[in-house]
Amino acid sequence: MYIIGISAFYHDSSISIIKDGEILFAAQEERYTRIKNDSSFPELALQAGLGYLKILPHQVDAIVFYEKPFLKFERILETYLNYAPRGFLSFLKSMPPWIKEKLFQKKIIAKKLIQMKFSKDIINRIYFSDHHLSHAASAFYPSPFQKALVLTMDGVGEWPTTTVYTGVDSELKKIKEIHFPHSLGLLYSAFTYYCGFKVNSGEYKLMGLAPFGQPKYSDLIKKELIDIKSDGSFHLNMKYFDYCTGLKMTNKQFDNLFGKSFRRPTEPILQIHMDIAASIQLVLEEIIIKICKSLKSDYPEYTALVLAGGVALNCVVNGKIEQEKIFEHLWIQPASGDAGGSLGAALAFYYNELKNNRVANSDDQMNGSYLGNDYSNLEIKNFLTEIGASFHFFPNEKSAELLNLVCHELCDEKAVGWFQGRMEFGPRALGNRSILASPVPRDMQKKLNIKIKFRESFRPFAPAILEEEAWHWYNIKTTSSYMLKTATINKNYQNHVPAVTHVDQTARLQTVNKKTNLIFHRLISEFYKKSQIPMLVNTSFNIRGEPIVESPQDAFRCFMGTHLDVLVMNSFLLYKDEQPSHLKSDYRESIED
Ligand SMILES: [Fe+2]
């Protein structure tokens, strides 16, 4: 049976398609509409998925939405009532879209589907999951474990912000939860906002800033902002936060606590911002480690822990959980944010609701997170020919000649746009929609940040390293296929790869496996042969503020609009200096941050 999961109307809309529990397709709407974190109904992603799998609407047995609109509405309404009349302004601002779009979601979803040629009775096959059940399901069902504890942490869904489930065979059971407004996701977002970054997408920048600072304020945070119990459960002091009643995350008292008003995005980043970033990161780590330890002591029979929810994208915390060795096994859903909710919703319906049998195996079920659509050589050739681009064609994309030429360019310190196969699901590019470069040159980080990504120069890059070499270079005993854990580089290699080594000697690495991405593995192996370095810089194929490229058109446009030197799309190799000058474009201004 075909089940479609949908996540939409908040941020990061997506769809996932499963068949008899097997994950067949998953993609975010932003990739198609080219609007970062697009929250609209994921019509284009759904069209792409149905087209890719050649499924007709009448073959779809169930549509499952990732959360329950009425419960979410109840939470919002109750929050406003509790704080009345303080929250009146945001109440007025929030209500119209809630009433129109969120409260009557079943009808809206049905209407959209009918416009897409689904039959009218589709409304009887639309179901609703819980927000945190969707996260939990996205973590447990694709994991390689038959039995695991599941920890979900995010901003907020309906009421819960943190939940713990037990996952056994095909059943998920909630055993603990913490409710709004007490939320690790919102706490971290409050600091993201205070430090001048965008809430819901700038959390990464805050994490990247942390190693530049000292955790001078962590005691103050624990004294004033959050009360942490011995089991890791927590209670926020709401007098410092404004997200229940206002349209901002923090208030004047928060500013006073740190002796400085919040940073506006255009203002410079100062040492205090770095120190604050380091402080909140440390507090977050402490809380999550406490939660994990308490879970292990309460449920010693569980040897595996799985994570999802936006907070699980904090790869520094994930790295710490692993280093502490609290659980023997750890698995994290690569699309841990709300995009992954569509996948969890579909899986929760199939396993938890319909009680179908589930057998985990040693590999996870994510197919390397390469779950989006791909493009054929013919489609790429037609596009390149039509626009008059200059290209070289290598009949087999795994051809040694192509890989050789690309490696030659990488060794020559060139930046390469690398577009292969199926698009990644989740926020990370894992070698199919990536920008690649040598990690060796000292100025590579700056070059990539400023000339190609058009973003802040401090932003770190991640290495994609051959899985079999990872332990040799980094303090890591397991794999990190989804770039979701940081590890420290071993002492003897500390100066070898400056472009991917953070100021605290860590890296957010991706271990590349032959089985899930053969061509990427072969490319890195080739680079290894030539340079003695078994890794490449791997950053997402986009510029600041733009979603990761989806199509050959997007990739070519990014190639021509930045200082990328080389573009590879399947079997096609393009050099920038061979392109006709009229194809050059500067599209930096058209992208909103
Ligand atoms: Fe969430």
CATH superfamily label of the largest domain: Carbamoyltransferase, C-terminal domain
Residues in β-strands, percent: 15-25%
The number of helices is 19
User: What spatial order of strands do you see in the largest sheet?
Assistant: 13-21-20-14-15-19-16-18-17
Highest CATH level, the class of the largest domain:
Alpha Beta
> What ligands does this structure carry?
fe (ii) ion
Overall structural class, as computed from helix and strand content, comes to alpha/beta
Number of strands: 21
CATH topology of the largest domain: DHBP synthase
Number of domains: 3
Based on the structure given, which CATH architecture of the largest domain is correct?
Answer: Alpha-Beta Complex
- Tertiary shape: globular
